Amino acid sequence: MSTVERVNFEPFSDILQTQRRDFPLADSALADPLNALALVDGEWMVINDSYQIVRAADVTGANGLAATQTGYVLFAERGRYDVRAMAETKMPIVQMGDYEADTRIFDIALAAGTSGAAIISAGQPLRVATLTIGSRKYVGLAGHSGAGGAPIVGRVTRLPASNGGKLRFMKASAI
Prior knowledge:
By secondary structure, the chain is mostly beta strands. The protein has one helix at about 80-85; strands spanning about 10, 20-25, 45, 55, 70-75, 90-95, 100-105, 105, 125-135, 135-145, 155-160, 165-170.
């Protein structure tokens, strides 16, 4: 079972080989830590047609399906002042490059949809999905069955049972 903490995304590999970029938020209210739907680090984003970032799936219940394009992980803790202080509210995503990281934003058992599968082994592919952690919805990682539907965004490298409750995954730039 995953939990949401102050830090939810921790790179395990050297992050210098990745490209982190600040993108404007389509909805700047999501940077406000008091917002019930505020973004947290480790959530997955996509770039929309206006070159802004939005959650990779809708957490409001209007559409629970993940986007068909590859997502990017958010790399800013909830409520960071430097993010909120910019005239145009921007948040950093890890856009390019290979990395391995630990995340708390995952659901080990979610298997809904044609591309879903419970997370059971190292090497298993992962997809982006709408998750419920506690009483709130987030956009994070879930198992991928290998069948069509949502794109594969990474692979499991360490299960939460042997990693302090965090899911370790590898994100390859070619995925």
